[in-house]
Amino acid sequence: MSTAGTTAAIQAADIITEAHPPTKRRFIKSFYPTWFFIPAVALYVVFFALPTFSSFYFSLTRWSLFDSTFIGFENYAQFFSDPQLYTSFIHTLIYAVITSGAKVIIGFFLALLLTSPIVGRGYLRAVIFFPVLISTIGVGIMFKSLLDPFHGMVNAVLGFFGLPQPGWFTDPNLALYSIAGVDIWKGVGIATLIFMAGIVAIPAEYFEAARIDGAGGWKILRQITVPLTRGATATVIILSLIGGLRSFDIIWVTTGGGPGFTSDVLASVIYKQYQAGFFGLSTAGNVVLFLLVTVIMVPLSAFLNRKQVEL
Amino acid sequence: MSRQRTRAWIVGIIAIIVSAVVFLVPFAFVLLQAAKTPAEASNLAFSWPTHWQFLQNFWDTLTSNDGVIWRAIINSAVLTITSVTLMVILSAMAGYVLSRKRSKWNPVVNFFVLAGLIVPPAVVPTIWVLQDLQLFGTLPGMILVEATFGLSFCILLFRAFVGNIPRELDEAAVLDGAGPVRLFLQVVLPLLRPVIVTVIVVQAVFVFNDFAGPLYFLPGDQNVTVQLALYTFSGQNLSFYNLLFMAIFLITIPPLIAYIFFNRQIVAGITSGAVKG
Protein backbone atom coordinates (compact mmCIF):
# COMPACT_ATOMS: atom_id res chain seq x y z
CA MET A 1 0.00 0.00 0.00
CA SER A 2 2.70 2.43 0.96
CA THR A 3 4.83 1.43 -2.04
CA ALA A 4 1.89 2.30 -4.28
CA GLY A 5 1.75 5.69 -2.57
CA THR A 6 5.44 6.26 -3.11
CA THR A 7 5.26 5.28 -6.78
CA ALA A 8 2.39 7.68 -7.27
CA ALA A 9 4.38 10.37 -5.53
CA ILE A 10 7.38 9.76 -7.76
CA GLN A 11 5.17 9.92 -10.83
CA ALA A 12 3.67 13.14 -9.55
CA ALA A 13 7.13 14.53 -9.04
CA ASP A 14 8.08 13.61 -12.58
CA ILE A 15 5.05 15.30 -14.04
CA ILE A 16 5.83 18.49 -12.24
CA THR A 17 9.55 18.50 -12.87
CA GLU A 18 8.81 18.22 -16.56
CA ALA A 19 6.76 21.37 -16.40
CA HIS A 20 9.59 23.34 -14.82
CA PRO A 21 13.10 24.26 -15.87
CA PRO A 22 15.62 21.57 -14.88
CA THR A 23 17.43 23.85 -12.41
CA LYS A 24 14.47 23.61 -10.08
CA ARG A 25 14.44 19.86 -10.32
CA ARG A 26 16.12 19.04 -7.03
CA PHE A 27 13.97 21.42 -5.06
CA ILE A 28 10.72 20.09 -6.40
CA LYS A 29 11.72 16.47 -6.20
CA SER A 30 11.32 16.65 -2.46
CA PHE A 31 7.92 17.70 -1.19
CA TYR A 32 9.23 17.11 2.31
CA PRO A 33 12.12 19.52 2.65
CA THR A 34 14.89 18.46 4.98
CA TRP A 35 15.41 22.06 6.04
CA PHE A 36 12.18 21.78 8.03
CA PHE A 37 14.35 20.01 10.60
CA ILE A 38 16.88 22.80 10.86
CA PRO A 39 15.25 25.10 13.44
CA ALA A 40 14.34 22.22 15.76
CA VAL A 41 17.77 20.63 15.35
CA ALA A 42 19.46 23.96 16.03
CA LEU A 43 17.64 24.42 19.35
CA TYR A 44 18.17 20.78 20.29
CA VAL A 45 21.90 20.90 19.56
CA VAL A 46 22.59 24.23 21.26
CA PHE A 47 20.45 23.88 24.39
CA PHE A 48 20.32 20.13 24.89
CA ALA A 49 22.91 18.04 23.04
CA LEU A 50 25.85 20.41 23.53
CA PRO A 51 25.28 20.77 27.31
CA THR A 52 24.76 17.04 27.67
CA PHE A 53 27.94 16.08 25.81
CA SER A 54 30.04 18.80 27.40
CA SER A 55 28.82 17.71 30.83
CA PHE A 56 31.03 14.61 30.52
CA TYR A 57 34.09 16.83 30.19
CA PHE A 58 33.11 19.45 32.77
CA SER A 59 32.35 16.75 35.34
CA LEU A 60 36.08 15.99 35.23
CA THR A 61 37.09 19.55 36.05
CA ARG A 62 37.10 22.16 38.74
CA TRP A 63 34.92 24.68 37.03
CA SER A 64 33.90 28.30 37.57
CA LEU A 65 31.88 28.66 34.31
CA PHE A 66 34.66 30.87 32.94
CA ASP A 67 37.64 28.58 33.27
CA SER A 68 38.04 24.95 34.11
CA THR A 69 40.94 22.87 35.44
CA PHE A 70 41.07 19.21 34.55
CA ILE A 71 41.18 17.11 37.72
CA GLY A 72 40.33 13.63 36.45
CA PHE A 73 37.80 11.62 38.39
CA GLU A 74 38.17 13.62 41.59
CA ASN A 75 34.58 14.86 41.53
CA TYR A 76 33.27 11.33 41.15
CA ALA A 77 35.58 10.09 43.89
CA GLN A 78 34.25 12.79 46.16
CA PHE A 79 30.69 12.00 45.16
CA PHE A 80 30.92 8.36 46.08
CA SER A 81 32.99 8.81 49.24
CA ASP A 82 31.05 11.64 50.87
CA PRO A 83 28.04 10.13 52.69
CA GLN A 84 26.12 13.38 52.23
CA LEU A 85 26.39 12.85 48.50
CA TYR A 86 26.20 9.12 47.87
CA THR A 87 23.17 8.61 50.12
CA SER A 88 21.33 10.79 47.60
CA PHE A 89 22.01 8.09 45.03
CA ILE A 90 20.30 5.47 47.21
CA HIS A 91 17.44 7.83 48.08
CA THR A 92 16.86 8.45 44.38
CA LEU A 93 16.48 4.72 43.76
CA ILE A 94 14.18 4.19 46.75
CA TYR A 95 12.07 7.19 45.83
CA ALA A 96 11.72 6.19 42.17
CA VAL A 97 10.82 2.57 42.93
CA ILE A 98 8.26 3.46 45.61
CA THR A 99 6.51 6.18 43.63
CA SER A 100 6.53 4.18 40.41
CA GLY A 101 5.34 0.95 42.05
CA ALA A 102 2.57 2.69 43.94
CA LYS A 103 1.42 4.58 40.87
CA VAL A 104 1.22 1.34 38.88
CA ILE A 105 -0.76 -0.53 41.52
CA ILE A 106 -3.05 2.28 42.71
CA GLY A 107 -3.47 3.59 39.19
CA PHE A 108 -4.48 0.18 37.90
CA PHE A 109 -7.14 -0.38 40.55
CA LEU A 110 -8.47 3.16 40.24
CA ALA A 111 -8.74 2.59 36.49
CA LEU A 112 -10.63 -0.68 37.09
CA LEU A 113 -12.97 1.19 39.41
CA LEU A 114 -13.48 4.05 36.96
CA THR A 115 -14.17 1.76 34.00
CA SER A 116 -16.71 -0.30 35.95
CA PRO A 117 -20.33 0.84 36.03
CA ILE A 118 -20.47 2.98 39.16
CA VAL A 119 -22.14 6.30 39.84
CA GLY A 120 -20.14 9.53 39.78
CA ARG A 121 -17.45 8.36 37.34
CA GLY A 122 -17.06 11.74 35.66
CA TYR A 123 -16.60 13.48 39.00
CA LEU A 124 -14.17 10.84 40.26
CA ARG A 125 -12.07 11.03 37.14
CA ALA A 126 -11.95 14.81 37.40
CA VAL A 127 -10.80 14.94 41.05
CA ILE A 128 -8.23 12.18 40.64
CA PHE A 129 -6.72 13.82 37.59
CA PHE A 130 -6.82 17.47 38.63
CA PRO A 131 -3.74 17.38 40.94
CA VAL A 132 -1.65 16.38 37.91
CA LEU A 133 -2.24 19.79 36.39
CA ILE A 134 -1.58 22.04 39.34
CA SER A 135 1.71 23.48 40.44
CA THR A 136 4.01 21.12 42.35
CA ILE A 137 5.15 24.07 44.44
CA GLY A 138 1.56 24.81 45.43
CA VAL A 139 0.94 21.16 46.30
CA GLY A 140 4.15 21.06 48.33
CA ILE A 141 3.25 24.14 50.40
CA MET A 142 -0.28 22.81 50.88
CA PHE A 143 0.94 19.46 52.21
CA LYS A 144 3.59 21.09 54.36
CA SER A 145 0.74 22.82 56.18
CA LEU A 146 -1.57 19.80 56.23
CA LEU A 147 1.21 17.54 57.53
CA ASP A 148 2.65 20.07 59.99
CA PRO A 149 3.64 18.07 63.09
CA PHE A 150 2.03 20.47 65.57
CA HIS A 151 -0.75 22.36 63.86
CA GLY A 152 -1.40 20.24 60.78
CA MET A 153 -4.85 18.87 60.08
CA VAL A 154 -3.70 15.29 59.48
CA ASN A 155 -2.06 15.03 62.88
CA ALA A 156 -5.04 16.72 64.51
CA VAL A 157 -7.27 13.97 63.13
CA LEU A 158 -4.81 11.25 64.12
CA GLY A 159 -4.59 12.74 67.63
CA PHE A 160 -8.37 12.78 67.87
CA PHE A 161 -8.42 9.02 67.34
CA GLY A 162 -5.54 8.54 69.76
CA LEU A 163 -3.13 7.50 67.01
CA PRO A 164 0.56 8.47 66.90
CA GLN A 165 1.28 11.84 65.30
CA PRO A 166 4.48 11.51 63.30
CA GLY A 167 6.61 14.43 62.10
CA TRP A 168 5.94 13.68 58.45
CA PHE A 169 8.56 15.95 56.95
CA THR A 170 10.68 16.44 60.09
CA ASP A 171 11.37 12.83 61.10
CA PRO A 172 14.61 11.74 59.37
CA ASN A 173 13.30 8.20 58.95
CA LEU A 174 10.04 9.30 57.44
CA ALA A 175 10.66 12.43 55.36
CA LEU A 176 11.55 10.68 52.09
CA TYR A 177 8.50 8.43 52.31
CA SER A 178 6.18 11.32 53.14
CA ILE A 179 7.39 13.14 50.06
CA ALA A 180 6.88 9.97 48.01
CA GLY A 181 3.31 9.88 49.36
CA VAL A 182 2.66 13.44 48.20
CA ASP A 183 4.19 12.60 44.82
CA ILE A 184 1.85 9.62 44.48
CA TRP A 185 -1.13 11.77 45.47
CA LYS A 186 -0.25 14.27 42.78
CA GLY A 187 0.77 11.88 40.01
CA VAL A 188 -1.52 8.87 40.29
CA GLY A 189 -4.04 10.56 37.98
CA ILE A 190 -1.75 10.11 34.96
CA ALA A 191 -1.31 6.39 35.69
CA THR A 192 -5.08 6.03 36.14
CA LEU A 193 -5.80 7.74 32.82
CA ILE A 194 -3.31 5.61 30.91
CA PHE A 195 -4.65 2.40 32.45
CA MET A 196 -8.21 3.48 31.68
CA ALA A 197 -7.29 3.95 28.01
CA GLY A 198 -5.70 0.50 28.05
CA ILE A 199 -8.70 -1.19 29.67
CA VAL A 200 -11.23 0.52 27.40
CA ALA A 201 -9.25 -0.68 24.36
CA ILE A 202 -9.81 -4.35 25.27
CA PRO A 203 -12.64 -5.69 23.08
CA ALA A 204 -15.78 -6.35 25.13
CA GLU A 205 -16.17 -9.81 23.54
CA TYR A 206 -13.18 -11.08 25.49
CA PHE A 207 -14.90 -10.35 28.78
CA GLU A 208 -18.16 -11.82 27.55
CA ALA A 209 -16.48 -14.98 26.29
CA ALA A 210 -14.63 -15.42 29.57
CA ARG A 211 -17.85 -14.93 31.53
CA ILE A 212 -19.67 -17.50 29.38
CA ASP A 213 -16.81 -19.91 30.01
CA GLY A 214 -17.49 -19.44 33.70
CA ALA A 215 -14.58 -17.21 34.71
CA GLY A 216 -15.12 -15.17 37.88
CA GLY A 217 -14.12 -11.57 38.48
CA TRP A 218 -10.68 -12.42 39.85
CA LYS A 219 -9.93 -14.82 37.03
CA ILE A 220 -11.00 -12.29 34.38
CA LEU A 221 -8.73 -9.73 36.03
CA ARG A 222 -5.74 -12.10 36.11
CA GLN A 223 -6.20 -13.72 32.70
CA ILE A 224 -7.61 -10.91 30.58
CA THR A 225 -7.35 -7.42 32.02
CA VAL A 226 -3.79 -7.60 33.36
CA PRO A 227 -2.15 -9.24 30.29
CA LEU A 228 -4.07 -7.12 27.82
CA THR A 229 -3.12 -3.84 29.49
CA ARG A 230 0.56 -4.66 29.25
CA GLY A 231 1.18 -1.76 26.88
CA ALA A 232 -0.38 0.63 29.38
CA THR A 233 1.57 -0.92 32.24
CA ALA A 234 4.83 -0.47 30.33
CA THR A 235 3.99 3.18 29.62
CA VAL A 236 3.11 3.87 33.26
CA ILE A 237 6.25 2.18 34.59
CA ILE A 238 8.52 4.01 32.14
CA LEU A 239 6.94 7.43 32.65
CA SER A 240 6.74 7.23 36.43
CA LEU A 241 10.23 5.79 36.82
CA ILE A 242 11.78 8.54 34.70
CA GLY A 243 9.80 11.11 36.66
CA GLY A 244 10.78 9.55 39.97
CA LEU A 245 14.50 9.40 39.17
CA ARG A 246 14.52 13.05 38.05
CA SER A 247 12.28 14.29 40.84
CA PHE A 248 13.26 17.66 42.30
CA ASP A 249 10.47 20.23 42.75
CA ILE A 250 8.38 18.39 45.32
CA ILE A 251 11.42 17.45 47.42
CA TRP A 252 12.92 20.89 47.30
CA VAL A 253 9.74 22.68 48.35
CA THR A 254 8.75 20.28 51.17
CA THR A 255 12.03 19.43 52.92
CA GLY A 256 14.85 20.88 50.82
CA GLY A 257 16.55 17.50 51.15
CA GLY A 258 16.37 17.54 54.94
CA PRO A 259 16.22 16.94 57.81
CA GLY A 260 19.98 16.68 57.50
CA PHE A 261 20.45 14.91 54.19
CA THR A 262 17.85 12.23 54.75
CA SER A 263 15.64 13.17 51.81
CA ASP A 264 18.33 14.39 49.45
CA VAL A 265 18.12 12.91 45.96
CA LEU A 266 20.50 13.35 43.01
CA ALA A 267 18.54 16.27 41.58
CA SER A 268 18.61 18.16 44.89
CA VAL A 269 22.32 17.48 45.36
CA ILE A 270 22.97 18.82 41.86
CA TYR A 271 21.17 22.02 42.83
CA LYS A 272 22.88 22.34 46.21
CA GLN A 273 26.36 21.93 44.70
CA TYR A 274 25.46 24.43 42.00
CA GLN A 275 24.32 26.90 44.65
CA ALA A 276 27.54 26.37 46.59
CA GLY A 277 29.54 27.17 43.46
CA PHE A 278 30.94 23.64 42.93
CA PHE A 279 29.98 23.54 39.27
CA GLY A 280 32.22 20.60 38.42
CA LEU A 281 30.85 18.50 41.27
CA SER A 282 27.31 19.51 40.41
CA THR A 283 27.87 18.43 36.82
CA ALA A 284 29.36 15.14 38.01
CA GLY A 285 26.09 14.58 39.91
CA ASN A 286 24.27 15.36 36.68
CA VAL A 287 26.30 12.76 34.81
CA VAL A 288 25.63 10.20 37.57
CA LEU A 289 21.91 10.89 37.21
CA PHE A 290 22.20 10.61 33.44
CA LEU A 291 23.97 7.25 33.70
CA LEU A 292 21.51 5.98 36.32
CA VAL A 293 18.52 6.88 34.16
CA THR A 294 20.10 5.35 31.05
CA VAL A 295 21.25 2.16 32.79
CA ILE A 296 17.77 1.59 34.19
CA MET A 297 15.60 2.79 31.32
CA VAL A 298 17.30 1.30 28.25
CA PRO A 299 17.15 -2.40 29.26
CA LEU A 300 13.83 -1.92 31.04
CA SER A 301 12.04 -0.35 28.09
CA ALA A 302 13.54 -2.97 25.74
CA PHE A 303 12.24 -5.69 28.06
CA LEU A 304 8.80 -4.14 28.56
CA ASN A 305 8.28 -3.51 24.87
CA ARG A 306 9.49 -6.94 23.74
CA LYS A 307 7.13 -8.95 25.91
CA GLN A 308 4.08 -8.89 23.70
CA VAL A 309 0.86 -10.58 24.62
CA GLU A 310 0.34 -13.97 23.05
CA LEU A 311 -3.27 -14.92 22.53
CA MET B 1 -29.97 -6.14 37.03
CA SER B 2 -31.19 -4.30 40.10
CA ARG B 3 -28.52 -6.00 42.19
CA GLN B 4 -25.92 -4.61 39.83
CA ARG B 5 -27.45 -1.20 40.12
CA THR B 6 -27.31 -1.23 43.92
CA ARG B 7 -23.69 -2.28 43.68
CA ALA B 8 -23.00 0.59 41.27
CA TRP B 9 -24.49 3.00 43.77
CA ILE B 10 -22.80 1.60 46.86
CA VAL B 11 -19.32 1.39 45.32
CA GLY B 12 -19.79 4.78 43.68
CA ILE B 13 -20.83 6.50 46.89
CA ILE B 14 -17.96 4.97 48.87
CA ALA B 15 -15.54 6.10 46.16
CA ILE B 16 -17.01 9.59 46.17
CA ILE B 17 -16.66 9.89 49.95
CA VAL B 18 -13.07 8.62 49.94
CA SER B 19 -12.12 10.87 47.04
CA ALA B 20 -13.70 13.86 48.79
CA VAL B 21 -11.55 13.26 51.86
CA VAL B 22 -8.36 12.57 49.92
CA PHE B 23 -8.66 15.14 47.14
CA LEU B 24 -11.28 17.76 47.94
CA VAL B 25 -10.39 18.45 51.57
CA PRO B 26 -6.86 19.69 50.66
CA PHE B 27 -8.34 22.05 48.05
CA ALA B 28 -10.99 23.26 50.46
CA PHE B 29 -8.19 23.88 52.95
CA VAL B 30 -6.43 26.16 50.45
CA LEU B 31 -9.63 28.13 49.82
CA LEU B 32 -10.45 28.50 53.52
CA GLN B 33 -6.91 29.56 54.37
CA ALA B 34 -7.01 32.11 51.56
CA ALA B 35 -10.07 33.74 53.13
CA LYS B 36 -8.79 34.06 56.70
CA THR B 37 -7.08 36.80 58.65
CA PRO B 38 -3.30 36.40 59.06
CA ALA B 39 -3.61 35.39 62.71
CA GLU B 40 -6.25 32.79 62.04
CA ALA B 41 -4.49 31.38 58.99
CA SER B 42 -1.27 30.82 60.93
CA ASN B 43 -3.08 28.19 63.05
CA LEU B 44 -3.19 25.98 59.95
CA ALA B 45 -6.48 24.57 61.26
CA PHE B 46 -9.13 23.21 58.94
CA SER B 47 -11.79 25.60 60.16
CA TRP B 48 -14.37 28.01 58.86
CA PRO B 49 -12.97 31.58 58.79
CA THR B 50 -14.60 33.67 61.52
CA HIS B 51 -14.03 36.74 59.42
CA TRP B 52 -14.10 36.40 55.63
CA GLN B 53 -11.68 38.61 53.78
CA PHE B 54 -11.26 36.71 50.53
CA LEU B 55 -11.34 39.74 48.24
CA GLN B 56 -9.05 41.77 50.42
CA ASN B 57 -6.52 38.92 50.55
CA PHE B 58 -6.84 38.62 46.79
CA TRP B 59 -5.92 42.25 46.41
CA ASP B 60 -3.19 42.18 49.07
CA THR B 61 -1.53 39.19 47.43
CA LEU B 62 -1.38 40.91 44.07
CA THR B 63 0.08 44.09 45.54
CA SER B 64 2.38 42.65 48.23
CA ASN B 65 6.18 42.96 47.81
CA ASP B 66 5.84 45.69 45.20
CA GLY B 67 3.46 43.56 43.16
CA VAL B 68 5.94 40.74 42.64
CA ILE B 69 3.09 38.27 42.01
CA TRP B 70 1.65 40.53 39.37
CA ARG B 71 5.01 40.82 37.63
CA ALA B 72 5.44 37.05 37.91
CA ILE B 73 2.08 36.45 36.28
CA ILE B 74 3.04 38.65 33.33
CA ASN B 75 6.46 37.00 33.00
CA SER B 76 4.96 33.52 33.17
CA ALA B 77 2.34 34.43 30.60
CA VAL B 78 4.99 35.74 28.19
CA LEU B 79 7.23 32.73 28.80
CA THR B 80 4.42 30.23 28.35
CA ILE B 81 2.91 31.77 25.23
CA THR B 82 6.14 32.35 23.34
CA SER B 83 7.87 29.09 24.22
CA VAL B 84 4.79 27.01 23.40
CA THR B 85 4.31 28.85 20.09
CA LEU B 86 7.92 28.24 19.17
CA MET B 87 7.79 24.60 20.15
CA VAL B 88 4.57 23.95 18.22
CA ILE B 89 5.89 25.49 14.99
CA LEU B 90 9.30 23.81 15.12
CA SER B 91 8.05 20.39 16.14
CA ALA B 92 5.16 20.40 13.67
CA MET B 93 7.68 21.00 10.87
CA ALA B 94 10.07 18.35 12.17
CA GLY B 95 7.39 15.78 13.02
CA TYR B 96 5.79 16.21 9.60
CA VAL B 97 8.97 15.61 7.64
CA LEU B 98 10.01 12.81 10.02
CA SER B 99 6.75 11.00 9.39
CA ARG B 100 6.60 11.59 5.61
CA LYS B 101 10.12 11.30 4.38
CA ARG B 102 11.79 7.91 4.10
CA SER B 103 15.41 8.42 4.93
CA LYS B 104 18.18 6.31 6.33
CA TRP B 105 18.62 9.04 8.94
CA ASN B 106 15.20 8.50 10.47
CA PRO B 107 16.36 5.95 13.08
CA VAL B 108 19.03 8.43 14.19
CA VAL B 109 16.49 11.23 14.49
CA ASN B 110 14.10 8.95 16.39
CA PHE B 111 16.89 8.01 18.76
CA PHE B 112 17.63 11.64 19.58
CA VAL B 113 13.94 12.44 20.00
CA LEU B 114 13.58 9.63 22.53
CA ALA B 115 16.80 10.68 24.24
CA GLY B 116 15.34 14.17 24.64
CA LEU B 117 12.43 12.61 26.47
CA ILE B 118 14.48 10.47 28.84
CA VAL B 119 17.79 12.21 29.48
CA PRO B 120 17.80 14.68 32.38
CA PRO B 121 19.09 18.04 31.13
CA ALA B 122 22.65 18.91 32.16
CA VAL B 123 21.86 22.09 34.04
CA VAL B 124 25.16 23.81 34.73
CA PRO B 125 26.51 23.24 31.19
CA THR B 126 23.23 24.71 29.90
CA ILE B 127 23.91 27.79 32.02
CA TRP B 128 27.39 27.90 30.49
CA VAL B 129 25.92 27.84 26.98
CA LEU B 130 23.36 30.51 27.88
CA GLN B 131 26.08 32.70 29.35
CA ASP B 132 28.19 32.39 26.20
CA LEU B 133 25.18 33.52 24.17
CA GLN B 134 24.53 36.37 26.66
CA LEU B 135 21.12 34.85 27.32
CA PHE B 136 21.59 33.67 30.90
CA GLY B 137 19.01 35.16 33.25
CA THR B 138 17.00 36.66 30.40
CA LEU B 139 13.47 35.82 29.36
CA PRO B 140 14.48 35.05 25.73
CA GLY B 141 17.04 32.53 27.00
CA MET B 142 14.46 30.87 29.22
CA ILE B 143 11.98 30.76 26.31
CA LEU B 144 14.49 28.97 24.08
CA VAL B 145 15.37 26.48 26.81
CA GLU B 146 11.70 25.67 27.59
CA ALA B 147 11.00 25.29 23.87
CA THR B 148 13.93 22.88 23.55
CA PHE B 149 12.86 20.76 26.52
CA GLY B 150 9.37 20.38 25.05
CA LEU B 151 10.46 19.50 21.50
CA SER B 152 10.70 15.72 21.90
CA PHE B 153 7.21 15.24 23.31
CA CYS B 154 5.67 17.45 20.63
CA ILE B 155 7.59 15.84 17.75
CA LEU B 156 6.39 12.40 18.84
CA LEU B 157 2.76 13.55 18.91
CA PHE B 158 3.02 15.30 15.54
CA ARG B 159 4.81 12.36 13.93
CA ALA B 160 2.11 9.95 15.10
CA PHE B 161 -0.68 12.23 13.93
CA VAL B 162 0.81 12.99 10.49
CA GLY B 163 1.13 9.22 9.98
CA ASN B 164 -2.66 9.02 9.98
CA ILE B 165 -3.13 11.67 7.28
CA PRO B 166 -3.37 9.97 3.87
CA ARG B 167 -0.47 10.73 1.55
CA GLU B 168 -2.92 11.00 -1.34
CA LEU B 169 -3.76 14.47 -0.03
CA ASP B 170 -0.15 15.56 -0.46
CA GLU B 171 -0.06 14.12 -3.94
CA ALA B 172 -3.25 15.88 -4.92
CA ALA B 173 -1.90 19.18 -3.62
CA VAL B 174 1.39 18.73 -5.46
CA LEU B 175 -0.42 17.87 -8.67
CA ASP B 176 -2.37 21.06 -8.24
CA GLY B 177 0.89 22.92 -8.17
CA ALA B 178 1.64 23.44 -4.47
CA GLY B 179 5.27 23.72 -3.44
CA PRO B 180 6.65 22.09 -0.30
CA VAL B 181 5.98 25.10 1.93
CA ARG B 182 2.47 25.62 0.63
CA LEU B 183 1.78 21.90 0.93
CA PHE B 184 2.73 22.09 4.59
CA LEU B 185 1.08 25.40 5.46
CA GLN B 186 -2.16 25.09 3.52
CA VAL B 187 -2.82 21.35 3.33
CA VAL B 188 -1.18 19.58 6.24
CA LEU B 189 -1.18 22.23 8.96
CA PRO B 190 -4.97 22.79 8.98
CA LEU B 191 -5.45 19.04 9.36
CA LEU B 192 -3.18 19.03 12.39
CA ARG B 193 -5.53 21.24 14.36
CA PRO B 194 -6.63 18.63 16.93
CA VAL B 195 -3.09 17.63 17.80
CA ILE B 196 -1.94 21.26 17.84
CA VAL B 197 -4.58 22.04 20.46
CA THR B 198 -3.45 19.04 22.51
CA VAL B 199 0.20 20.04 22.31
CA ILE B 200 -0.53 23.67 23.18
CA VAL B 201 -2.61 22.85 26.24
CA VAL B 202 -0.36 20.12 27.64
CA GLN B 203 2.84 22.07 27.11
CA ALA B 204 1.35 25.35 28.34
CA VAL B 205 0.40 23.70 31.63
CA PHE B 206 3.86 22.15 31.79
CA VAL B 207 5.80 25.36 31.13
CA PHE B 208 3.54 27.38 33.44
CA ASN B 209 4.17 24.88 36.26
CA ASP B 210 7.90 24.51 35.64
CA PHE B 211 9.94 25.36 38.71
CA ALA B 212 13.43 23.91 38.17
CA GLY B 213 13.87 25.66 34.81
CA PRO B 214 13.39 29.23 36.06
CA LEU B 215 15.20 28.36 39.31
CA TYR B 216 18.38 27.58 37.35
CA PHE B 217 18.15 29.68 34.21
CA LEU B 218 16.15 32.73 35.23
CA PRO B 219 17.42 34.06 38.54
CA GLY B 220 16.71 37.57 39.70
CA ASP B 221 13.67 39.48 40.88
CA GLN B 222 12.95 41.20 37.62
CA ASN B 223 12.32 38.02 35.64
CA VAL B 224 10.58 36.04 38.37
CA THR B 225 7.96 33.49 37.25
CA VAL B 226 4.91 32.44 39.22
CA GLN B 227 6.33 29.18 40.57
CA LEU B 228 9.50 30.88 41.71
CA ALA B 229 7.54 33.77 43.24
CA LEU B 230 5.37 31.29 45.13
CA TYR B 231 8.43 29.42 46.38
CA THR B 232 10.15 32.62 47.56
CA PHE B 233 6.90 33.82 49.09
CA SER B 234 6.60 30.60 51.09
CA GLY B 235 10.02 31.23 52.60
CA GLN B 236 9.47 34.89 53.47
CA ASN B 237 5.95 35.46 54.65
CA LEU B 238 5.51 32.92 57.41
CA SER B 239 3.23 35.34 59.24
CA PHE B 240 0.98 35.75 56.21
CA TYR B 241 -0.29 32.27 55.55
CA ASN B 242 -3.53 33.69 54.22
CA LEU B 243 -1.72 35.51 51.41
CA LEU B 244 0.46 32.48 50.71
CA PHE B 245 -2.59 30.29 50.22
CA MET B 246 -4.24 32.98 48.14
CA ALA B 247 -1.15 32.87 45.93
CA ILE B 248 -1.51 29.10 45.60
CA PHE B 249 -5.14 29.61 44.65
CA LEU B 250 -4.27 32.27 42.05
CA ILE B 251 -1.62 30.05 40.49
CA THR B 252 -4.08 27.16 40.28
CA ILE B 253 -6.60 29.14 38.25
CA PRO B 254 -4.92 28.91 34.80
CA PRO B 255 -4.53 25.11 34.90
CA LEU B 256 -8.09 24.85 36.21
CA ILE B 257 -9.39 26.87 33.27
CA ALA B 258 -7.31 24.76 30.87
CA TYR B 259 -8.75 21.62 32.41
CA ILE B 260 -12.35 22.79 32.23
CA PHE B 261 -12.15 23.81 28.58
CA PHE B 262 -9.63 21.33 27.18
CA ASN B 263 -10.20 18.24 29.28
CA ARG B 264 -10.48 16.01 26.21
CA GLN B 265 -7.29 17.29 24.57
CA ILE B 266 -5.27 16.98 27.76
CA VAL B 267 -6.41 13.39 28.20
CA ALA B 268 -5.57 12.68 24.55
CA GLY B 269 -2.08 14.07 24.98
CA ILE B 270 -1.34 12.09 28.09
CA THR B 271 -2.75 8.78 26.93
CA SER B 272 -1.33 9.01 23.40
CA GLY B 273 1.28 6.36 24.07
CA ALA B 274 -0.89 4.21 26.30
CA VAL B 275 -2.34 1.60 24.01
CA LYS B 276 0.44 1.26 21.47
CA GLY B 277 3.09 1.34 24.16
What features would you describe in this structure?
The complex is a heterodimer of chains A (311) and B (277). Chain A is mainly alpha-helical and 311 residues long. Helix content of chain A is 72%, strand content 2%. Chain A contains 15 helices and 2 strands. Chain A has helices at residues 2-19, 25-29, 38-58, 74-81, 83-115, 121-133, 136-146, 153-160, 175-200, 204-212, 217-228, 230-246, 249-254, 266-275, 279-306, and strands at residues 61-63, 68-70. Chain A has a two-stranded antiparallel sheet with strand order 1-2. In chain A, strand 1 and strand 2 form a beta hairpin. In chain A, helix 3 (38-58) crosses helix 15 (279-306), helix 5 packs antiparallel against helix 12 (230-246) and helix 14 (266-275) packs antiparallel against helix 15 (279-306). The longest helix of chain A has 33 residues, at 83-115. Chain B is mainly alpha-helical and 277 residues long. Chain B is globular. Chain B has helices spanning 2-34, 38-41, 54-100, 106-118, 123-132, 139-162, 167-175, 180-191, 193-209, 212-217, 226-236, 241-271. Chain B is built from 12 helices and no strands. The two termini of chain B are 36 Å apart. Chain B is 78% helix and 0% strand.
